[in-house]
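User: quick one - fold this with NA7 bound?
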Amino acid sequence: MKPSQNEFDVVVVGAGFSGMYLLHKLRQAGLSARVLEAGTDVGGTWYWNRYPGARCDVPSIEYSFSFSPELQQEWQWTEVMAAQPEILDYANHIAQRFDLRSDIEFSTRVASAHFQEDEQRWRVTTDSGVEYAARFCVMATGCLSVPNTPQITGADNFAGDVFHTGNWPADGVDFSKRRVGIIGTGSSAIQAIPVIAEQVEHLTIFQRTPNYTMPAHNRPLSDDFRKQAIENYDEIRQQQRESQVGIVGYGFGFGGADNVEPTEAILETTEAERAALVEEEGFVAIRRFADVAIDPEANELACDMYRQQIGRVIHNPETAEALMPRDYPMGCKRPVIDTDYYETFNRSNVSLVDLRKGGIETITANGVQTAQGNYEFDTLVYATGFDAMTGALQKIDIRGRNNERLNDHWEAGPRTYLGLQINGFPNLFTVTGPGSPSVLSNMLVSIEQHVDWITECIEHMRDRQLRLIEPTLAAEDEWVVHVNEVAEGTMFTAPSCNSWYLGANIPGKPRIFMPYVGGVGEYRKKCDEVVANDYEGFVLSA
Ligand code: NA7
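Assistant: Sure. Structure tokens for the protein plus NA7:
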């Protein structure tokens, strides 16, 4: 390729929070960068997931960037856990404040990224055929950015409007006087169902697996709380970075969510004591028990308490039974929190179809045909999740040395060193990639750590006139083994668990626990040690 205006030090794919902060950092380091983004504006996850009720499940004080003291001081969150529009406003504010848009190409979807051995750089091509060249390519493509629409027979026959929670129209959807069918009862559905139910004539929910969800108890932030939190940001950030999941629960029980420290052992309680706790406190009573997360017997007792509370909330016993999770442990999937989810099933305009009694056979022009009967509606909503963590990377034709395809390298599941780099793919970085804490953590904490690490690495190379960085196969092998070892024996990898962390929601996807469960603090230490030991496990060459 001839030198052109499309040559940069770094090409970044994605303008969510990762890509935005990366651009800012790279500019500060004096590097030229271009960000390529499929959407028409910034925000990533929060740009696409505009479904009714979409909300963050991390306290907003903590789900925010620390890199700019000014930004941290000026931004005023209004609720304990922010709703999607407010988070998108925050993303827009950052784009404006740091003048990011001038280096972002919007409506630009990347089709391929090929490493050019002779030129020692990456050639990135968009789906409209525009080429970019850069020494470094960073995939800031997000962990939940490829919506999963299951292949259901007859799907194309449906005559009404069809939406997916993960790709929601920016102008919203008018559900008034509509009969709506929604497939799925994961986190997105659990957030959307109570809000949609209030707008529709009738809502039919198709549930394959009932979920465990805890009440969010979300509320507005008081001025006093916000002021105090902002004053304490240095301490909060430090604690976040050293924590297990990047959340310290600052102010829980004061202006934040409920404060229930898990310190007790459920195995030491009697049946009568557990029943009394459910009666007094409902679902949150379970949060006091520390052994639920580690002991399968304790976990089953907690699941039993959980089912008791469903029985207390839901008026119709058949609906209650259908909503009761069985057969898999609490905590194996990403925790879900909700506002009025179960109460919604007591509404007269809401009905639940328990697909465990007979699954979906076909989608017809007017609804869904199951083994139990036909259900008619005008609008269909897929709340069926994502091809998580690897989907966005594997949709791009990524090729490294010797023209090796990433999809071949990852045939048996994703392999990385630290979730940052892949053997055979020099100068390619992934932000919050598989093998890093990513989705098991507060994403903004993990994004900042990765972006800082990557930018400092590129600066280190520039200052020493090094051209290529790539992990050794041995370092990658060892890291893959380690990631698996720490996940083993946790609820996350219980044989009965079918979570998207394991890729179990996508037919044919290898069953591998993808994120790193070792904790944000330990992981950061490991990444820092690698640098201190002269980029141990990586080969840097001139
Ligand atoms: P999830 O958590 O993957 O949930 C998807 C839901 O869709 C889940 O209930 C699935 O049932 C259901 N599903 C998927 N395919 C089908 C078919 N073919 N038939 C019936 N039901 C189906 O995605 P979300 O968007 O809710 O949440 C993803 C993350 O976003 C969440 O964890 C937060 O981190 C934010 P299944 O359980 O597979 O039986």
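One thing worth noting: The chain has 16 helices and 20 strands.
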